[in-house]
Backbone:
């Protein structure tokens, strides 16, 4: 089709502003984990949106923040690299918070990428009255220093308000090009990466303080059983890494009850995503100060970006 459009879209913003929730809504299925804890996204996860005459590859980036660890520096590098070669940059700004130095900094970074169309998306609009939302829109217009927003659109992923409109605006902003992925593909994440993310999301639930940022998951063993059935059957063994013995005790729970709950929650999400049955074996390991250890970060998949 000669008028088909395709391209790449970076979703950026401060931590915990609804980027992952938005990308799941745009794609129409869960491909990025969500949590009320900031900085739960740690990689440039790609979701695929299939429109009537376009295909958009969405890049869900980590929240831009003042880094306190080597991991934090590497996550910010992921965001900067993600904006280098995309066709559209979407800055997510929550409706229920005022813009501060963080949003100003990100807007200044967006200005360094002149080739990309620039969208300001106000998220979580279901939490704000129309009158307060109008005031919020005025402040967002002032964030654009040295450039003009191509679109400013308020949305609510929670109630799917204006999500279809945003998808159509994204499609219209993309250049002419071919489809990069087959129809029906929702993400280019490897199965193992998706499994790790679902386990981490389950582990993040109901934990507090510094623990969410100390959790990372690796796959030890992943394979399909030879037995035949109505659905495939996979064996998955994974390790949840934390930084201290006290954190291990929290995730383990009394007589292993919390770890069992984590396994139940994660298995349900994994089985839905894989359309398969799985056996999930989880192990907790203390990998001391892994966020500050360059060799450990490389081993866990957070390589330094040059």
Residues:
């Amino acid at each position: 089709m000669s008028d088909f459009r395709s391209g790449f879209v970076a979703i950026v913003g401060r931590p915990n502003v609804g980027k992952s929730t938005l990308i799941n809504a745009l794609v129409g299925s869960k491909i990025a984990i969500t949590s009320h804890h900031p900085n739960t996204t740690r990689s440039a996860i790609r979701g695929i949106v299939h429109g009537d005459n376009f295909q958009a590859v969405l890049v869900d980036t980590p929240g831009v923040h003042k880094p306190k660890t080597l991991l934090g520096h590497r996550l910010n590098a992921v965001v900067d690299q993600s904006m280098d070669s995309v066709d559209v940059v979407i800055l997510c700004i929550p409706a229920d918070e005022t813009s501060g130095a963080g949003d100003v900094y990100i807007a200044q970074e967006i200005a360094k990428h002149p080739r990309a169309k620039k969208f300001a998306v106000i998220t979580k609009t279901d939490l704000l009255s129309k009158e307060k939302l109008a005031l919020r829109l005025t402040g967002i217009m002032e964030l654009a220093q040295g450039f003009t927003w191509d679109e400013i659109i308020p949305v609510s992923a929670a109630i799917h308000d204006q999500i279809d409109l945003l998808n159509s605006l994204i499609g219209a902003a993309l250049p002419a090009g071919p489809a990069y992925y087959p129809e029906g593909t929702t993400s280019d994440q490897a199965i193992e990466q998706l499994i790790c993310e679902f386990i981490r999301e389950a582990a993040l639930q109901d934990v507090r303080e510094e623990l969410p940022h100390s959790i990372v998951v690796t796959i030890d063993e992943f394979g399909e059983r030879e037995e035949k059935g109505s659905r495939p059957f996979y064996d998955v063994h994974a390790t949840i890494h934390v930084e201290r013995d006290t954190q291990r005790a929290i995730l383990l729970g009394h007589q292993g009850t919390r770890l069992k709950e984590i396994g139940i929650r994660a298995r349900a999400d994994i089985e839905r995503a894989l359309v398969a049955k799985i056996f999930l074996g989880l192990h907790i390991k203390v990998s001391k100060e892994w966020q500050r250890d360059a060799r450990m970060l490389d081993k866990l998949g957070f390589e330094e970006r040059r």
